[in-house]
Amino acid sequence: MKEFYPKNVKVVTVQKQIVKEVFGLALFVVSIFSHSWGGIVASSLFMIAALLRKWVIIDEGGMHVYYNAYFFKYEEAWTFEEITSIHKDTRHCGPNECMLHIGREFMTRRYVFTLAETAEIIAMAKEKNPGIQIETM
């Protein structure tokens, strides 16, 4: 099964996560000593947000967005039957890249792929859902 990973979804390394957690913890300690209740709440939310990891996969089943925050996991899946439109946009990305606007009902997600991957994704989408609307912007 062929899987495609977008170029514009940043993969957070463990080192960056540790730096964010240490910064949030330092902010939390400073907020406690300065009796800043707003700082305590903000630093707590920052530490929770630093735990969140997200990645996207487009495969033969459709588009899958995974969220992992260590204390909960969530998967949002759009099958090709649910996807109503795909718009190709080559103006707002680098050379040899294409941005795909993938739409379901009124929601849209946009991800950047190489031109070769874009052609494969569109061919797979047409095969799974012949009624899908594909346009070039």
Structural account:
- It is a single chain.
- By secondary structure, this protein is an alpha+beta fold.
- It is built from three helices and seven strands, in the order H-H-E-E-E-E-E-E-H-E.
- Strands 6-5-4-7 form a four-stranded mixed β-sheet.
- A hairpin with a 7-residue loop joins strand 4 and strand 5 (97-104).
- The longest helix is centred in the first third of the chain and has 20 residues, at 14-33.
- It is elongated and about 60 Å long.
- The model has no long low-confidence stretch (mean pLDDT 88).
Which SSEs are present, and which pair or pack?
Elements: H1 14-33, H2 37-50, E1 53-59, E2 62-68, E3 73-78, E4 85-89, E5 97-104, E6 107-114, H3 115-128, E7 133-136
Parallel strand pairs: 4-7
Antiparallel strand pairs: 1-2, 2-3, 4-5, 5-6
Helix pairs in contact: 1-2
Short description:
This protein has 137 residues and is of the alpha+beta class. Helices cover 35% and strands 33% of the residues.
Could you estimate the helical fraction of the residues in percent?
A: 25-40%
Percent of residues in beta strands: 25-35%
> Are there runs of 5+ residues with pLDDT below 50, and where?
none
Which descriptor suits the 3D outline? Answer: elongated
